[in-house]
Structure formats: structure tokens, C-alpha cells
Amino acid sequence: TIILGIESSCDDTSAAVIKNGVLLSNVVSSQAVHEAYGGVVPELASRAHQQNIVPVVHEALKRAGVTKEQLSAVAFTRGPGLMGSLLVGVSFAKGFARSLNIPMIDVNHLQAHVLAHFIKESEEDNNQPKFPFLCLLVSGGNSQIILVKAYNNMEVLGQTIDDAAGEAIDKCSKVMGLGYPGGPIIDKLARQGNPKAFTFSKPHIPDYNYSFSGLKTSFLYSLRDWLKEDPDFIEHHKNDLAASLEATIVDILMDKLRKAAKNLKINEVAVAGGVSANNGLRNSFREHAGKYGWNIYIPKFSFTTDNAAMIAITGYYKYLDNDFCTIDKPAYSRVTI
Ligand code: ATP
Ligand code: FE
Fold first, then answer.
1. Cα–Cα distance between 136 and 144 in angstroms, integer?
2. Cα(247)–Cα(37) distance, rounded to whole angstroms?
3. Predicted TM-score (pTM) of this structure
4. Atom 10, ligand 1: which residue's CA is nearest?
5. What is the rounded (10 degree) CA torsion for 253, 258, 263, 265?
6. Could you give the CA distance from residue 309 to residue 25 in angstroms, rounded to a whole number?
7. Does the beta carbon of 12 lie inside 6 Å of ligand 1?
8. Can you name the residues that pair with 124 across neighbouring β-strands?
9. What is the mean pLDDT of the chain?
């Protein structure tokens, strides 16, 4: 079974080929045009996808050593994401599958972030989470604790009621005048800083839900006060600010995850999504493994942010379930797991 996966939900155009669960290629073309704007500009993203989609798919097939005639099915991100971006990948995938007379498989982008843990890089790669497991999904648009019961059965136990963790990091980074996206920049600066240098407010909300908008405001107001005292405050304290912000976010995320693991008595715990590239969060996972006996699953860096390998692996499991979609199914910009 050979699946072509296509991802175009935001600002990365990606295509990947998976054969019987093993990854043959994963090509990602990230769009640099948005950097100058400090955020993704939807219309520019859509146009860039149109330019990139054909060469990216071509390259993925070439690197996999697979011809289009050998494909069993085409899997694509149907949502959630930016409508103009999604439409490019969805339309291309449908047309491609139709022309080859093979099934098309619609994939939920958030489920795919979780199932990235099942991408095998070789036949011998056998370190996958066991069902049921908990997955902390932290990305640019989502912060959720998910109970994963099976490949096709996930339950959201809690989620952010306002901003996502990645969004909060990106906004705080913007306030500090750093580049976009802020996540990797904050991560790098934080390595040289003191995580206890500053304290920012933490939310008090019930259940397994998250909130990050209060932290963002607290960061902004504190910074404004400090800048009144010292106009070069950011320059002088960049590393400590980044380290303290990162530590606060990691604490907020882990507090609820620990609570869920304890209450549900589950010690298989995974992390997924773009923010799972963060070193502070990854280290905290390792500490929790030692302290609470968790079996932890941390994705390879290239499978944290958006990629088509995760779409192809999700498509592969749907293929085994004969779970196909028809050509009339539209893209959806908003949807939960
Ligand atoms: P969604 O999957 O919810 O639709 P998305 O696809 O835009 O959102 P991802 O690509 O999974 O999100 O993740 C992007 C986010 O990850 C950005 O907010 C980015 O700043 C953050 N990020 C990337 N690398 C790091 C890092 N090393 N540390 C912290 N955050 C990071
Ligand atoms: Fe994503």
C-alpha cells in the first residue's frame, strides 16, 4: 500500500509518500513571504501553495522512487486551516486521485499531528505509543489534551478557551520585537536565560482546559512598566524574558497534563504539534518520565510542525479501514478532532 499525503492548511506546502507505514519521502516547502508581515497573510499563502504544489508533489514522488501509477490512494488535509490554503491542496489531491482513478482520503489535520507518532522511518522503528494514551497537542492554533483510544477514536479532554500556546509565544515574541515565528527564537534565547528571573500570571480555570490570553497580557503590561524604567530593558534581559516566558507556558501545559494522567491512570504520554519542538517542553517531558514513571513519546523535530508525512500516515490507517471520501466533500476551515 503506497499513500501520497498532501498538506496545505497554513503556510507550508508539503507532500510525502508512505509505503506500508514506512516513510519514503517528506518534502516541505515553507513560505518565507510572511516573515516581513510578522504573521501569515492568507492570500499570499494561497498563492504560494499554487506555485509550490506541483513541484513539491513531483519531488516527493521522485525522492520516494515511486511513480504516480504505483500509488494506492491520495490523502489530503481537509481541515482545519486557512480556507484559501486548504483549497489548493484539496483541489489538487482530488484532481490527482481522480485522474489516476484511485481513492481519495480526507484527513483531519489535528488527528494527523497526533498520529505523527506512528510514522515509521524504517521497518525496525517500533517505538510507538500504545492505546490508550494521552497526547498534549500544542500548535499555532490549538492547545488540547487528547485521549487517544485508537487511530480513529480520539476524545478531547480539555482545550484552550482563548489563545493557543504557540500563538501566545508568537505574540509575546512580537511584542519583544523579535522575528516571526517567535517559537524557535524564544526557544533559542531561553537556553541562555534564567527561567526564574521573572514571574508572569498563570490562569486558574477548571478541568483540563487552558487559557493563555491572561499570560500574554501580563507579559505585555510588565514589559511596558519595565521599559519605562529602562528603554533598553528588552535588549538587557532578552534571554531571561524568553526563559521565564517559556517556563511559565511549560508549567501551565504540564500541570493539566499531569492532572489528566493521574486521574485517568494513564502513563503513556505523547506530545505533538509545532510547540512540541520546544526544548523546555521536551525536557519537562523527560523529567516527568523519570518522576512519574511515564512512557513518553516526543516526535522528531521534522514531524512537530506541519508536514505531509503525518497526513500520509493518517491516510494509511484510514485506507486500512476502507475509510475513503468522495469528490464532493468540501474543505472545512474549522473542525475539532
Ligand atoms: P494548527 O496545527 O493548530 O492548525 P499550525 O499548523 O499553524 O496550527 P504548527 O505548525 O503545528 O501550527 O505549529 C506552529 C507553532 O509552533 C508556531 O506558533 C510556532 O511558533 C511554534 N513553534 C515552532 N517551533 C517552536 C519551538 N522550538 N518552541 C516553541 N514554539 C515553537
Ligand atoms: Fe499544524
1. 6
2. 27
3. 0.96
4. 305
5. 130
6. 8
7. no
8. none
9. 96
Residue with cell 478532532: 337
Q: Which residue in this structure is represented by grid cell 499525503?
A: 5
pLDDT at 336 exceeding the cut of 90 = no
C-alpha cell of residue 54? 506541483
Buried b (16+ CB within 10 A) or exposed e, 202-230: ebeeeebbbbbebbbebbeebbeebeeee
Rounded to whole angstroms, the Cα distance separating 116 from 304 reads: 8
Locate 231 and state its grid cell.
528603554
Residue 57 known to bind ligand? no
61: amino acid identity, one letter: L
Output Rg (C-alpha) for the chain, integer angstroms.
20
pLDDT tens for each residue of 84-114: 999 999 999 999 999 999 999 999 999 999 9
Using a 10 angstrom Cβ sphere, with 0-12 exposed, 13-18 middle and 19 or more buried, the burial of residue 36 is: exposed
Angle ∠(21,26,27) on CA atoms, nearest 5: 160
Three-state secondary structure readout of 209-274: CECCHHHHHHHHHHHHHHHHHCCCHHHHHHHHHHHHHHHHHHHHHHHHHHHHHHHHCCCEEEEECH
With a 6 Å cutoff on the Cβ, whether 275 touches ligand 1 is yes
